[in-house]
Specification:
heterodimer, A: about 190 residues, alpha/beta, Beta Polymerase, domain 2, two-stranded parallel ribbon, about 25% helix, B: about 400 residues, mainly alpha, Cytochrome-c3 Hydrogenase, chain B, 3-stranded antiparallel β-sheet, 17 helices, about 50% helix
């Protein structure tokens, strides 16, 4: 009987696993039972979850209630040229707990709604959960063109307001598209 | 009736369109912002009703460049992020790359990186506290701080030839080993700096003007600090006990005896005190690391094929020749996994992390930098509401916003 228990959860008895990692494992176990279809993986000791976009908000909400009170980062990866990628964008939420020091990476894959359409992918904003997401989501919108539904103030963060493209997308060239040379010039007599 | 407590702690300042309110544009070029950032302040007389921070004036596309430079080349760009403590950025970047590549550093390299990162922390805190002093009228204090930064620059120059943009670390090691002269200079600094630190504390910590200007100004509560993703000294001054050096000891921090410095007030004065105390703890770490510096090589071995072999190895061993040849050739360098990972260090400003995505090539597919300044700058409007215009510089200085890191 004891053998069966230990084989089912080998991680909790492994001395190499630290307390924070155990806390992360427990959170993952709770989340994967509550949300079927959520995949978890470990790379170099980092615990990661892949979550369908429809349920990302409720899952992040339950993770926040489970103790992940610090939103470390919200960022995005454009998988346009990535070998073996099935989706265009991957949002990355890095969570941490100030009590247990556990860390968890939550990845959400999103696609452009229609090929060739100008519309942007839409994801529900996590600003109601963590106020710190405000500027991080603005940056993702600015540089990747992913809209956050329910964001209080979704303006561009680093690029100028009149900028049209989303420069960290992989189809945007490193040299730009000539925006630097076509800025409107404000002369002294017109100012 | 106090204006601050009754009328202007309004939750919805955006709705206030009273025409007696003044709008003041502060920056992007202003001596007291220290860097290129902009604040649009809404004033009622001298009192700040609301502030709208704006950034992007120094945006240089560092993350985009990171997708086009190799893992070793990009370290030169990280120098330009938080240019007050470039060594810490170097360490953070290669920490993330080595996590992705799965490289385990040599003990000597770990200690050396700890020493340079802690020296960078001292130099960053000196500038930050010095600037807070300068902005609140204590010019002498600023000069004391800046003189000691000069000494640290001198150490870095002896170590790697560059004072400001060090680009010191390499994947799997560092560009230079510690020479006896470097160790001697650090020893001298360890002996002389505590005296200056005492002088600085005597100058400012109980200075009536300074305490009046900073105590109770820009208060950030503990719950807000966590909810708004504040890290580093800003969070620790609000009572959050998170310090990555203790909580998830990277490099060799497990070996050293030091304290995590915290305060509970959460105001500008508490942030000043936390930084002052952290400098003393950093000194303790540096002296412990220097006395117990392990011998042996700095870079990982030739068999790992990540760091360039020494000239002696290149000319006298076949492994060294092959390794040097392959590392210099395009697409024959490191083995990069088709994976992604995140690693962070406790930089002087807070948690500085890089999310690196590898696609097997010699560049990162994505090099996301998690800058602490962005999240701290986002807190600014909340901290300044209800305070006076002259408090803007005190709060801004105590958050230590570095625009180059902010905009990247």
């Amino acid at each position: 009987m004891s053998e069966a228990t230990s084989s089912r959860e080998p991680s909790s008895h492994d001395p190499a696993i630290t307390g924070s990692e155990r806390a992360a494992d427990e959170a993952i176990a709770a989340v994967t039972t509550a949300f079927p279809g959520v995949e978890s993986s470990v790379f170099r000791g980092q615990r990661r979850l892949v979550v369908p976009v429809e349920r990302s908000f409720t899952l992040l909400e339950s993770l926040k209630e489970a103790g992940f009170d610090l939103l470390v980062d919200v960022s995005c990866v454009d998988y346009l040229e990535y070998r073996g990628a099935k989706h265009r964008f991957g949002l990355v939420y890095l969570l941490a707990s100030t009590a247990t020091n556990a860390r968890l990476t939550v990845r959400v894959f999103v696609d452009e709604p229609v090929e060739g359409d100008d519309s942007c992918p839409v994801v529900r904003s996590v600003v109601p959960l963590w106020e710190g997401a405000n500027w991080l989501e603005r940056e993702v919108w600015d540089l990747f063109g992913i809209r956050f539904e329910g964001h209080p103030d979704l303006r561009r963060l680093v690029m100028p307001e009149e900028f049209a493209a989303h420069p960290l997308r992989k189809d945007y060239p490193l040299q730009g598209r000539g925006e630097r040379h076509n800025f409107p010039v404000l002369t002294r007599d017109r100012s | 009736m106090s204006i601050a407590t009754t009328e202007f702690d309004v939750a919805t300042p955006a709705e206030r369109s009273e025409d007696y309110l003044w709008t003041l544009n502060f920056g992007p070029q202003h001596p007291a912002t220290h860097t290129t950032l902009r604040l649009v302040l809404k004033l009622e007389g001298e009192r700040v009703v609301d502030a709208m921070p704006e950034m992007g004036y120094l945006h240089s596309g560092f993350e985009k460049i990171g997708e086009h430079l190799t893992f070793n080349q990009y370290v030169t760009v990280t120098d330009r992020m938080n240019y007050i403590s470039p060594m810490a950025n170097n360490v953070a970047w290669h920490e993330a790359v080595e996590r992705l590549l799965g490289i385990d550093l040599t003990p000597r390299c770990k200690y050396i990186r700890v020493i340079v990162a802690e020296l960078a922390r001292i130099s960053d805190h000196l500038l930050c506290n010095g600037a807070v002093g300068l902005d609140t009228g204590a010019f002498t204090f600023f000069l004391y701080a800046f003189y000691q930064r000069e000494v640290i620059y001198d150490i870095f120059e002896t170590l790697c030839g560059a004072r400001f943009t060090n680009s010191y670390t390499r994947v799997g090691g560092a560009s230079q080993d510690f020479t006896p002269l470097v160790i001697e200079k650090i020893r001298t600094f360890l002996k002389t700096f505590p005296k200056t630190l005492d002088d600085m504390e005597r100058l400012l910590t109980r200075n009536r003007i300074f305490v009046d200007r900073t105590k109770g100004v820009g208060v950030l509560s503990k719950a807000d600090a966590t909810n708004r993703s504040a890290t580093g000294p800003v969070a620790r001054a609000s009572g959050v006990t998170r310090d990555l050096r203790k909580d998830e000891p990277y490099l060799a921090y497990r070996d050293f005896d030091f304290k995590v410095c915290c305060a509970s007030a959460g105001d500008c004065y508490a942030r000043y005190l936390v930084r002052m105390a952290e400098m003393r703890e950093s000194l303790k770490i540096v002296s412990q690391a220097l006395e117990n510096l392990p011998s042996g090589p700095v870079n990982v071995g030739i068999d790992q094929r990540t760091a360039l072999p020494t000239k002696k190895q290149v000319y006298s061993t076949i492994e060294g020749t092959i390794s040097h040849f392959e590392l210099s050739m395009a697409n024959r360098g490191f083995e990069v996994p088709h994976e992604e990972s995140y690693a962070a260090i406790e930089a002087p400003n807070g948690e500085l992390g890089f999310y690196v995505v590898g696609d097997g090539g010699e560049n990162a597919y994505r090099a996301r930098c998690r800058p602490p300044s962005v999240l701290h700058f986002a807190i600014f409007p909340q901290l300044i509401r209800g305070h006076t215009l002259s408090d803007v510089v005190a709060v801004l200085g105590s958050l230590n916003i570095i625009a180059a890191e902010l905009d990247r």
